[in-house]
Amino acid sequence: MTINTMAKGGWHRDQMSCFRKMEKVIVAMQDPDMGMKMRNQRLLITVIPHAMTGRDIIDWLMKKYNICEEEALHLSGKLVRYGYIYPLKEPRSLVLRPDESPYRFQTPYFWTSTRWPASELDYAIYLAKKNIRKQGELMEYEKERYSVLHKRINHTWDFVVMQAREQLRASKQRRKADRIVLECQEQAYWLINRPPPGARNVLDMGLERPNNTARVTVNSEYYKNEIETCKRALGRNRVKSSICLEGFVKYSEQYQNHDPIMQGCLPSNPWISDDSAHWTMNLETVPTPTRLRVERWSFSFMELLNDEMGRREFMTYLEKEFSGENLCFWQACEDIKHGESSRIVEKVEEIYRNFLAPGAPRWVNIDSKTMDKTLSGIRHPHRFVMEDAQMHIYFLMKKDSFPRYLKSDLYKNMLARAIVPQETKKSVFPFMRRQRHSSPSPAQVATQATEEGGNAKGAGQAGTNSAAGSNV
Amino acid sequence: MGEMEELRKEMENLKDQITAARKTFQDTTLQEAASGVTVVGRVQLKTRKTLRGHLAKIYAMHWGTDSTLCVSASQDGKLIVWDSITTNKVNAIPLKSSWVMTCAYAPSGNLVACGGLDNMCSIYNLKGKDGNVKVMRELAAHTGYLSCCRFLSDTEIITSSGDCTCVLWDIETGTEKMVFAGHQGDCMSLGVSPDFKFFISGACDFTAKLWDIREAQCRQTFSGHESDINAIGFFPNGNAVITGSDDATCKLYDLRADQELITYQDSSIMCGVTSLAASKSGRLLLAGHDDFNVNIWDMLKSERVGVLAGHDNRVSCIGVSSDGMACCTGSWDSFLKIWN
Q1: CA nearest A443: which of B39, B45, B300, B296?
Q2: Were B253 and a residue from A51, A222, A286, B222 both cysteine, which residue would form a disulfide, CB within 3.0 to 4.6 Å?
Q3: Can you tell me which residues the record assigns to a coiled coil (chain B) (predicted)?
Q4: Of A341, A442, A461, which has the smallest distance from its Cβ to B172's Cβ?
């Protein structure tokens, strides 16, 4: 069974990998040993060989892929929607019913991927055959399409009719059973590739992206650039994967209590309870912040700076230590980086006057090399002219002032004062139970798993949260 | 031709060396690294709100930085700003071109942007003086469709395009500030790092690239996908890139290890990933697929822990609100759903 993987038209390539995967499943289902048990199905008075029930399909998928029923339904639904399996009872309803409804495999000749894309000519021949065979019994939408095609490919219409007649003649020579099967298969194919109006079109890939003519030309210039990039890439520093993965693990654990999707939130999740207390408590301008928020400030310097209130608190602390100008300087540099281009020159001058000039009122302590570089850069101000100086001050604050702030009374008092919201009581009406968490707390689930004989890995770890120590 | 062949061989050789160098830094498996991590268990999110109002396929959505406002773009030619908690439409902006493929909300909340087959990025001012929402700028220079755009601030925006480049624009003057060229296929999506110094782009050449915004240089390239990369995002701490592709897998590439560390795949998932978002702690990865579902992955254990099945057509966009409270999915069935 060869699967046509040559892309016919660039933009259809993305469907191909999906088809290939489904075809693998289909092939496995038809495996003589491990595949599905086919039987003869009764459909009214006819007996259809090599058919299977929807129930059989679900059971086989559940067993083979070790998935739950819901998932198997979803997967088998896909196989039907893409035409690899077709229903015998109601051919136009492309759904998989998990009961005794009979289904059959589509022959690879009629797989969507094999004859991709379905051609207008073939569709015309199909409609012509139907028209000839059952005079005037085309469905309304088929009649419309038939006449549209007739106009569009009028020049080859003789060929269409001739082909239709030829194919009908050939099919008459087949056994009746085979003829019916072929008709079913062909009908199934066209239901997918030319769906009736209103039916979902699985082959719809969205907006037709225009063909790209401005592609990269592969010439010696291109290779030379690539070689340069590769040489640079070769020499870069790398970190061991164990350290990197550990970093992710630590980060997730640290933020677990701050992740409302995983842990729910106090006093209640506004989406569930319709009570926006949580947001009110976490506004920029509240007099007392919540405990979680203050804890987050200790996770990293950027967390502190990104929170307006945190930044204000830090500024208060710095001013006590007479180093407030560092944060002011940093903020002013940020303002240049992200602000309007038209004001860059004036802002740079202001920074120079306030922070860098000899005898400036809020002079910042930068090493002489960076200072020289910055001063010469100021003559031609641009958005990033303060970058080096800003970085210097940033690291100064991060390595020195920030850790001391976290140990200071100012921070500790804030943490102690911070609110831990009470969980809102359940609704007064007992029959209107509102769920607090949408999903059970991981700790609970883990405990259940343990009780059911799973591993005993720390179910109690879920709630711990290291607030101490900065971590960037 | 001899010279070209020599150059090509040299390039291939260097690429092999890079692969070998990367391998030497793989000193553990994911199982070992995450062995001490508590199991998450089944995650079941419920639809809390359904945002109805679009009349055609929704192609993109983006949360604002406050907790409840989001913007969505649809093929019906409308850009709608929603107050998702009340499900009210705050703004319904009619677009000049209905072939829109992306939208973005500025961090300040003042601007929204969109673009698509018109090859332009249109910026709208939501806080105009007379209360009307008007086009503020039309950024036109791309020679291909606009696939994604993200604001850095009210004055700068980055766009990715079907012309294989990404561009940093100065919104005030409406001009290109920097062009990031290097991809060999349509750029399909981009993501900005939490510190706004870098951005990543995923393209139809199956690679993802990390760009230094300031120096307009590609710092790192990640490959491994077998098909177009449709969605890309940063891990919340900014140290890793997560990509979603038409090959039905998602991958995590670490920036410091300079390589792929984790692949999220399952033999029963066959349809391509259209969009992805990470929960606030980075523990959960939500990936929207062509087959109408969203799969939820435990990022540290690389196991599927849940499914969101509520749409009747492809899930085209997904986003987690900035406070991590809720996840919003947009679909070709014209509805947006809020889950948590």
Answers
A1: B39
A2: B222
A3: 1-31
A4: A341
> What does each C-alpha distance from A429 to A273, A433, B8, B48, B288 come to in angstroms?
14, 8, 74, 21, 38
Residues of chain B contacting A438 with CB distance shorter than 8 Å: 44-46, 340
Nearest chain A alpha carbon to B157: A338
Gap between the terminal Cα atoms of chain A = 54
Which residue in the set A247, A253, A261 is minimally distant from B239, CB to CB?
A247
Determine the residue of chain A that is closest to B5 in CA distance.
A220
Residue A11 neighbours by CB under 8 Å, 6+ apart:
A205, A208, A209
- C-alpha separations of B338 from B68, B194, B295, B320 in Å: 10, 24, 15, 9
Residue A217 contacts by C-beta under 8 Å, 6 or more apart in sequence?
A: none
**Which stretch, A6-15, A128-137, A449-458, has highest mean pLDDT?**
A128-137
Count interface pairs A-B at CB distance under 8 A.
285
The pLDDT tens digits for A387-431 are 999 999 999 999 999 999 999 999 999 999 988 888 776 554 545
Across the interface, do A442 and B40 touch by the CB < 8 Å criterion? yes
Which one of B36, B227, B280 has the shortest CB-CB distance to A17?
A: B227
Per DSSP, what are the bridge partners of residue B210? B200, B220
How many whole angstroms separate alpha carbon B7 and alpha carbon B23?
A: 25
Q: What is the pLDDT of residue A89?
A: 85
Q: Phi/psi at A168 (nearest 5 deg)?
A: -65, -40
| Phi, psi values for residue A203, rounded to 5° | -90, 5
Give the SS3 label for residue A362. Answer: coil
Residues 6 or more apart whose Cβ sits within 8 Å of residue B126:
B81, B91, B109, B110, B111, B112, B133
- In degrees, rounded to 5, the angle at the alpha carbon of residue B34 between the alpha carbons of residues A242 and B17 is 30
Integer Cα distance of A209 and B161 in angstroms: 11
Task: Report yes or no: B326 and B61 within 8 Å, Cβ to Cβ.
Answer: no
Measuring CA to CA, how many Å separate A196 from each of A93, A193, A199, A265? Answer: 11, 10, 6, 48
With H, G, I as helix, E, B as strand and everything else as coil, classify residue B336. Answer: strand
Tokens representing residue B237 in the block: 């701490």
The answer to whether the CB atoms of A229 and B221 lie below 8 A apart is: yes
Ranges of residues in chain B with a pLDDT under 50 are none
- Residue of chain A whose alpha carbon sits nearest to that of B271: A18
Q: For the segment A335-344, what is each residue's pLDDT rounded down to a tens digit?
A: 998 888 888 9
pLDDT tens profile A366-388? 899 999 999 999 898 888 899 99
Distance of CA A11 to the CA centre of its chain: 20
- Which of A252, A278, A446 faces B283 most closely, judged by CB atoms? A252
Q: Are A356 and A381 in contact (CB under 8 A)?
A: no
Half-sphere exposure of A45 (CA within 13 A, CB side): 0
User: pLDDT band for position A60 (50/70/90)?
Assistant: very high
3-class SS of residue B166? strand
Distance CA B219, CA B258 (A): 10
Instruction: With CA atoms as reference, report the closest residue to B120 among B89, B81, B159.
Output: B159
SS3 B234: strand
> In the structure, what pLDDT confidence band is assigned to residue A471 with cuts at 50, 70 and 90?
very low
Longest C-alpha distance within chain A, in Å?
A: 105
Closest chain A residue to the Cα of B75, Cα to Cα: A207
Residues B247-299 have pLDDT tens digits of: 999 999 999 999 999 999 998 899 999 999 999 999 999 999 999 999 999 99
pTM of the model: 0.86
CA angle centred on B287, ends B149 and A10, rounded to 5°: 65
Rg, chain A, Cα only = 35
